[in-house]
Each structure stands twice: as C-alpha cells, then as structure tokens.
Amino acid sequence: MADTTPQIMLVHAAPQLRETPLGLYIHIPFCRRVCPYCDFNVYARQEHLVPAYLAALQRELNLWAERLRHRTLQTIYLGGGTPSLLEPPQVDKLLETIFQQFRVLDGVEITLEANPETLTPEKLAEYRAAGVNRLSIGVQTLARHGLKVLGRAHRPETPMAALRAARVGGFENVNIDLIYGWPGQSRQDWIRDLRTVLSWEPEHLSLYALTIEPGTPYERGVRRGVLHPLDDDTMAELAELAADLLAAHGYEHYEISNWARSGNWRSRHNLIYWRNGYYIGAGAGAHGYLDGQRTVNEPIPARYIERLQHNELPIVQSEFIDQRTEVVETMILGLRLVADGISATAFRARHGIELAELYAPVLTELAALELIEWDGESLRLTPRGVWVANEIAVRFLDPRGTLG
Ligand code: SF4
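^ thats the input. predicted complex w/ iron/sulfur cluster below
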C-alpha cells in the first residue's frame, strides 16, 4: 500500500523556541553509600572531592553563562546523588554564582533533592535562606524491612521529622519520592506508606515502580535467584491502588509517575523535560539539551574536575537531534503528561507539522482501542492507556506511519 503520510521537512527551529523555558540541572554525584538498585552516576566515599568539585562546577557555570547570557533560567534543580550532603554555605555560594552569571526569572523554582538522614532543622532553614524553595525528599518507604531491602540509610521515623523541620524552616513546596515493588513488599506495606505520607500533606508526590537495572547488585540478585521482584500483575495492582488513593485525597495525576496538589505545585523543572524543552546539564555525567543539541558530561568526578581546571566544558558526547528524532521525543515525552497530553497547536508551532496527518493510522487505531483520547487538538492517554504507556509510546516511534 502506498505511504501517503507526509514526510518530515527539515526546517530551522522556530525563533520563539529560543525563548522557550530554560532549566538548569546540576548533578551532585556523591552518596554516603550506593543503594543496590541504583544505576545513577553516583559515588560513595568520594566526599573528600566535594570542595574541588564545587570549584569545578563554578567554572562550568561560568562557561555556560558566557554562552547564554541573553537567556533566562526558569528553573534550577540540584539533583544527584545526594545534594543534601552539601553544607548550606556551599549551596548558597553555588546559587550566588548562578544569580550573578545568568539572567534568572523572578520566582525561579529552585529544587534540592535530599535524603532524610542528612537533614537537620538548622540545615533546612539555611537551605531555605539560601534561596532553595522546593525540597524533594527521597523517602522511598517507611517500612523497616523495605528500608533494609532497598539499602537505605534512614530509619522509618526520620522522614516525618525531616518534613516537619522543612515546614518550620519555611518550605512550602515539598515533594516526597516513594518506591513500590521492592522485594517482599505487601499490599498493606504500600497502603501504609501512602496513607502515612498523605497525612503529611506534601504538595507533590513521585511514585516510582522499582526497575531492575543492568549492572546493579539487584540485577545480579535476580539472576542468581536470591531476589524476587514483584510480578507485573501485583505491580499494576499497587499502581492502581495508589492512583485511587491519591485521587481521593485531591491530588492531580499529571504525569505517569507524578501527582500534585491543586494550585500550581507541579514540578516546573521536570515539565521542561516532559515538554522536550531545553536545559543545561552541569556537573559530572549530567545530560543537557540545548538548541537542538544533546550533551553528556564527563561522568567521573576526578576527571570532570581536571577538565574544568583547563577551563573547558567537560562535554564528552554531543549530538544534534534531527527533526525526526525531535518529533518522536516530543511525542514519547508528551504522552507521559497524562493530564495535559500533547496539544496539536503547540506541536504545529514547534515542528511545523500536523500531528493528525503525521500519525493518522496510529491515532485512529489507538483511539478505537480506547487507549488514547484524541479530539483533533489534544492527545492524551486514557486511564487504560496509562497502564500500557510503554507499549503505546513504541507506536509513535515511526512518524512515517509504517505502523498503519
Ligand atoms: S541515595 Fe539515591 S542516588 Fe544515592 S545511591 Fe541511593 S538511590 Fe542512588
């Protein structure tokens, strides 16, 4: 059958794209110990490198600022790793550099990821005074046996104390991360975690399904048959249970793994990622996406520091994203936004292409299966579609419609 779907035309990025929100991600790759399921770019017992690392970060930020002085940062995100291993004066200095070197939006969102056992009331108040206005606490679970199996350092009672101290310290915007699907987790464990955390009334919740990542101790445990992750049906049941409970408590499910209380508490930084927007990635192993180019920094902290001592950007990989790839990425990331979905108008403005024509057969088929809602302007997953989001995303990989 003849392929009648239009081909993507290569066009230059629309001028307004240069004014799209710009985020800044800063990676702090240090952790007290490495959790057995984690495959992030993180290192234990390297904390002696922190001062040199922060000096290198300052240099990297200066180099980016020279190139981007005319752009306005809308979000700043200190992720890791464990950024809360940094002392407040160190965070203060980092933020001061950013405010001196970049144009920064009034009311910029500044997030700091924290592990509960690293927080004290004094530290929290000082982070807040330094300008951090959003705290993301890695709780993961409150079950004693869960903390043990996940290799986490905190005790079950530590997160609540941290959250209370954060409120006293002036944090009005707090996210809690939870993980479900850890070996041995029961339905009751999960309900207890959710109910307890909901009683703290955080503004935002991220619920992550445990995934077994290659090269981790968890993967080796599964291969040897000593670790038993939950089966897919149980995982789906836990996910559904959470979605119902959070909806009943008034949280909006706006991204596959993320919920926010009503009133503008969505993660503005992560929304930049899901809208396939631009962000600078600074720090060891950080990924960035700027003006059509994806970048990856040197991952090893000592080498990253060395690169910056020569005053050069520590990029070890970069790739210009062609328009076809950019379209696919916009689709795959945008489908994660289960509340807003993808707007055909925004898609046309960005890519100069009609979404309806580009994906006609796929849209018709998935709508007939009630996996997506598509009214010609807005495309989003249905509640049924959310459970098979990965399978649906695959259907949008080929924008020329060979799936039809
Ligand atoms: S604390 Fe977080 S970043 Fe650090 S090892 Fe554990 S999961 Fe990974």
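The chain has 16 helices and 15 strands.
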